[in-house]
Each structure stands twice: as C-alpha cells, then as structure tokens.
Amino acid sequence: MTALRRRAAWASVACLIAGCGSVDPSTTAPGSLAPRSIAVGTALAAEQTLGRALDDTPRSLDPQLSTDVQGQRVLDDLFEGLTTVDIAGKAAAGVASSWESSADGKTWVFHLRPEARWSNGAPLTAGDFVYSWRRLVNPKTGAEYAQGLAAIDNALAIASGQKPTDTLGVEALDEHTLRVRLSGPTPYLLDLLSQQYTYPVYEPAITRYGDAWVRPEHLVCNGPFVLRENVLGSRITLEKNGNYWDSAHVRLQRVVYYILTDTSAQASRFLAGDVAWTDSFPPSQRSWLKSVIGDQVVNSPYFGNFMLGMNLHQPPFKDNLPLRRALVLALDRAPLARYMREGVYQPAYTLMPPLPDYQLPLPDWTSLSTEARHALARQLYAQAGYSDRHPLRLDIDETMLDAGTRHFFDAVAANWRSVLGAEIHIDEREFKVLLQDLQLHKLLLFHDAWIGDYPDPYTFMQIFYTGNGNNHGGYSNPRFDQLIDAAGQEPDNSRRFRLFEQAERLLDDDAAFIPLYYYATRHLVKPYLRGWQSNIMDRNLSRYMYLLEHQER
Amino acid sequence: MLRYTVRRLLGAIPTLLVIITLAFVLLHMAPGGPFDGAKRLLPQIQKSIEAKYHLDEPLWRQYLRYLADLAHGDLGPSFQYRSTSVNEIIAQGLPVDATIGLTAIALAVAIGGAVGVNAGLRRGTPWDYGSMGLAVAGISTPVFVVAPLLILIFAIKLHWLPAGDWVHGSLSHLLLPAIALALPYTAYVARLMRGSTIDVLNSGFIRTARAKGLPLRLIIWRHALRPTLTPLVSFLGPAIAGVVTGSIVVETVFGLPGIGRYFITAALNRDYTLVIGITVLYGALIILFNLLADLCYAWIDPRVRLR
Lengths: 553, 307
Hints:
The complex is a heterodimer of chains A (553) and B (307).
Chain A: H1 3-20, E1 38-44, E2 49-54, H2 69-78, E3 83-85, E4 91-93, E5 96-101, E6 107-112, H3 126-137, H4 155-159, E7 170-174, E8 177-181, H5 189-192, H6 203-209, E9 225-231, E10 235-240, E11 254-259, H7 263-271, H8 286-293, E12 297-310, H9 321-330, H10 333-340, E13 346-347, H11 370-383, E14 393-399, H12 403-420, E15 423-429, H13 431-439, E16 445-451, H14 458-461, H15 478-488, H16 493-509, E17 513-524, E18 529-530, E19 546-552
Parallel strand pairs in A: 2-11, 14-15
Antiparallel strand pairs in A: 1-19, 3-4, 5-6, 6-8, 7-8, 9-10, 10-11, 12-16, 12-17, 13-17, 18-19
Helix pairs in contact in A: 9-11, 15-16
Chain B: H1 2-29, H2 43-52, H3 59-71, H4 86-121, H5 126-140, H6 143-157, H7 171-201, H8 204-211, H9 216-244, H10 248-254, H11 262-268, H12 272-300, H13 302-306
C-alpha cells in the first residue's frame, strides 16, 4: 500500500468513527458507508424469518407480571387477549369474536371463538380468563399492574387484600361466554383488554412449574407464535404456532427478537442486515441515517408527552401563577424541537398528544407572535416580582437519560435566560433517586414524562387528579376533578372528549406544568418488510408482517 | 502446599462475608427500591409486592434470610427480571463471558507477550519504539470506540463476520468481541513484558550465564523467560476475574447475553439480589485467581517456596 493510499484508508476509518459516535452527523461522510441498494420484488420471500431489534430485556414473559414496552412487544406475539390490535394499532376482535354491553355500559358479555386453542392443542375457555384475571389482582401474585383492571368490579379491593379473589367482577357463563361487570362505564374497555396483563395464561403449566412456567420448554400460550428460545439479555426466538386459530393468515415462520440496549448497536445491526426492524435509533443520528437509507427511517407520532413539572406547594411556584405562566410562555418550542431534537419530536402545547377524534385544546397564547409572546412572558415575570437585578434562580432536576436530552434541557435553560433573564441550571440525578425525591415532593422544577397505556385521554388526565400518585407537582383543582369524575360517568365518547378538553384548558389556565414535546416512534424498517403501519400506540404485531423477495446489490 | 491452599480458601470466607455485608447495607441505603417505577403503584399493591419478596421485614432479618439462602447456594429471585432467579441469570451469562474473556486473555498473552519480550530484547531500536507506541495507543483507545469500529469494518462494510449476537461454539461470533476486549489487555501485557524482560536481563544470574559463555538464545529460553512472567502473573490474577465476569461495553455493543452489564443496570434498578449475587461471584473469582497466581509464583520462582 502506498503512503497516499494508506492515508486515504485512514480517512475513511475516521469517517466510520465519526459516523458511529454521537458526533454532529453533518460532519460525517456517509458515502463511505452507503449500504448496497436493495431491489424488492412482489412475491413472498422463500424464507420468512424476521429479525427485530428490541430496546431491552423484557422484565418477564409472564403476562401478568409484565410491565414494560419490550415485554408487551413479545407477549403480543405469544399471547392474545379477548381483544387484540389490528394492523393500525386499534382494538380488534381477538379470542372474543363478538361482544355486547348493557345500556349503562357497566356489564359486558364476550363471546369466545370456539376454535381458540392453547399452543398444546387444549381448548381455550372463558374459565381461563377468569383464572388469569383473578391471578392478576391476587396480592400473592405481586403483579405491579394489578391496578390495570381497576375498571372491573372489586379489582382494587382484591388487590389491596380487602376482598377474596373470587369476588372479581368476571364470570364464565359457559365454556365460551364471559361476563364482565364494571364499576363504571369504561369506553376504552376494548383497548384495555388488549393489554398484555389481561392475556390468558395456562393454569396447568403454572401449577406444575411455578415461576419456571415461562421457560421455553414449559410455556404454553395462545397467540400466533410460540417460544422456542429465550437467551436473557440477548435473543428471544419465536416460531409460528400451528394451533393458533388464525394461523392460516400468519406468514412469518420465525421471529427473532435481538435485545440491543444500545440504540447505535440497533442501527449498526440494521445496516449489517441482521434485523429488518428496529425499535429505536439514536435521535442524534437521524439526519445521517436519512441521508444513507432514506425512507427506511420511520418517525411517527407516539402517545407520549415530555414535560417539566413544577412543585405547586412550595415557593417560588406556590400561589405564583404569573411566574408559572411566564415560564410556560417564554419557551420557543418549535425551534427547540427542530434544532435540539433533530425534528424527531413535535413541539407540545397540551398535556394530551394528538389522538384521533380528540380536539387538542390549543392554548390562546399559541396564536401570539413570538415577540408578543415573549413580551407577555416578561410582563408576567416582572409581575411575579423578578427582574434583571433579582432574577429567578432555580435548578431543573432531571435523570441521566442521554446526551441529547441533556442538551435539550441546556437549550431550555438558555431560552429562559435570553427571554426572561432567569438563571436556570441543570441538576442530574439517578433515576431511582429522582423518583424518590418526586414522591416526597422535594423537587421544585423537574423532568416529567408520560406515555399513555391505551388510546384514551383518561390515561393522561388522571395524573393531575387531586392526590394521584403520579401528580408530582401536587396540582389540585376541584373543578378539574369534577370534570374528570363527570367524564368517568359519561358513556358517550364524544361528550367525554369534550369534558376532557375543558379539563385540559384548566391545566393551561393554572399553568399546571410546562409542556415541551410529544414523543415520536423511531424505527428503522427494511423496504421488503411489509404488513405494518405506524400507529400512536406503537404496537406492530409480527402476526401481520411478511417479507418480500429482495436482493441486496 | 495443600495446607497453604486450604488455609487460604478458609480465609476467603470472612472476606466474602464482609463483601456481602457491605453490598447489602450500601444497596439498602441507596434511595428508592426495586419496585419504584416511573408509574406509581397504589400503596397497597406496592406493599403486597414487597411482602412477597420479604422486603417489608426488618433489614437484619432480610440479611439473615439472604445468608441462609446463600448457604444453600440460592442467590434468590431477581426483582427486575421477575420469574427468573439470580442463579439462572448467572448460569446463562457466565459461560458466555468466560469464553469471550478467556479467549481475549489468551490473545493478549500470546500477542502482547511476544511483542513485549521482543521489544525488551531490542531495547532502543525502532522495533521497540514502534511497538510501544502502538501499545500506548491500544491502552488509550476505549473499547466503545474499537468495538463499533470493528463492526463497521468487518460486519457492515466487508460482511465477513456477524455484527453481534451469540451462538454457542461459533468462532465467527466470538472473534470480534474477543478482539475488541483483548486490545487494551494486549497493549498492557506488551508493556509489562517489555519492562520485566529488561529487568531480568540486567539481573545478576543472567550476567553469570553470559559470563559462562552460554549462547544468548539459550539464556533467554532457559533462564530469562520464566522470571519475566512474575509481574504478568500478578496482573493476570485479577484481570482474569474481571474479564470472566464480562464487560458492559462489549456486551452492549455486540448484544451478548453476559452478566457484565448487570454490574451497572442491576444497581441502577435496585435489583438487590442480582447486585449482591454478581458481587459475591466477582469477589469469589478474585480470591480464587489471586490464589492461583500465588501458587504460580511458587512454580516460577523457587525463592517463594522457601518463604
């Protein structure tokens, strides 16, 4: 190799380093890494094996013990509830083929498919659901999501040990009919019943093997796939379940989840062709990835919100609406999201992220010009008693997420400094420490976030209800609570939504929190992987996916 | 020798007890518990979960319970990975880390040793400066740079080797992680061996051998090589214990099912049993490999046996 050639080789190595770190992507030379182009045919690929990158090791493959998104992804493939989600992420018929509810919305009857079976061929009956739901709320199970069934009669009383498990409002009328009694109308019940913790589990396996029933050699399930292999922290392999009632429409023979906690590793495994789908990529690499693989980078709205909370029971925020409003108004959310988060996330002005049929109650101040908004913020800041000589001095308490989030908070602080003159600093602490300080209401201005469990405003609105465990700022407004209570008794969904919209306006009037941005999904998807659609709950079942013939050139 | 070994092994028990006690107390002192999550649980539900794992008992009773279980070889259930025991986690992960770690150490000793001895013998030559320059570069390049770089070159660009994943017994899956892990150790071993070679060559018995008129090759192979190994052995003892229990960076980048990552994640998750379990394991391995190192000294250097 000549000296010149050698230098050229080192230059390309330098590009590789820059490309894989969190270096500003605009300085990298993606050309050196451009993967081969992919020609996609129209016929199904002969080998239907899908590799999917997963963000972390699922905490458990026991549906009732699962609490995390990763667990949900795998359990969505292994099990099926009374309902499931369709390709667009909406609740659809699962083990139950039909259902009806009483006029007051408090009693539901589900009709189970007679052809539904366990993976070992045993028939799946209404009694299996009764067993599984009682297991979820039984304090002996120790399920963290026992409160997920709160809508069902007596669920919380049983979970708290005040009533026996057989008082749960669910009974098998016959082998294929299940009756569910609710404590109030729950228009999102069908969404709730597609959550992993409501999935049926196979009693004989649990009785026989105890905790070990989730091992591949013992696990009996009822979904489109069965568990072949579970290598903790590395790989979960599923194979098609021939006993699944709809197996004729499942085209993938094999799904391999690769656990890659490092989002850069997900991107490199995608580029290497090991996985056709990733759950993430580093937001800081978005522009670079876009320039290399274009449309294979997929961003879409996700049902989550990233915000700052304020402690409403301590100075400086206690009884200080002008200061809270000044902080809310001063931020330039659109440029913050565009430049500090690479446009991956959309600027937020409300508590609720966008949801079909729900009118986001955009605050009036969003229609002001930047100058007018800043002027108003400064006026409120002065009204609260602050000035250049006596500025607001405060810390944002946040947890160590990643460098991008840290830079975002730095920009937020700089934004407040330039508009108001406030001196805000960032204080990072470990996640569990932050949680404890939040629960003890020790923090004044803090990082907060919420991801909805099901596509309904209630999952967001309940946080600000007086005394809610996640109401870290201690917000309390009787008017707000009344609206939420009224929504809880309202069976008509569009009227419910109007009540939630009113409640949200109160949150803005009271400046109860500081919205920053709505979350977004971040996937890398090969062009030959079909049978999926972006959706706000970010649930994409392997059941619908298939691979087309393709050739890498 | 046997009595010495038995005495050392018995002496390890109080050391391990101190490690366990410290880990136990420090962990429980840290704010937050294993079941404090981003979404707050209802207090009664939180209580019933904690009762299930005896976390509601006084600390001393939890401690005694842990020791009693440990005496039976049971490291307890993991709180983070529910329905999995710490024993299962270690049984699944340790062989992977051990395979990668021992391969890396073997590479480091073979390559680093050869380069280091060579540099020591040719002290002051371009060969010496060149290889030591490379060694300094190797020590100062972090694994989180080397590992993605190896993936980009050998997996994404050249398609020669897999970018990650683990298949038992597959050489191609072992190669990149082992090389990434071996690099800093190779560099360290090279520097160590160079220094010790120079030391030994300057010592009295080599001068005597030269004065006797023995050919250089014979001096090196028969007399010099064995004593140069002394610093290497004292380095390898703790190094093997460290490498066998995994590397968080290598495991994360290559997506390997090892236990190295839990040294950090389990502590952050307040997964008490998992943290204490791998800490005990690590402590036991350090004690074991230090003992082996001491036994090796006796083989290398007869003077040690006299003492």
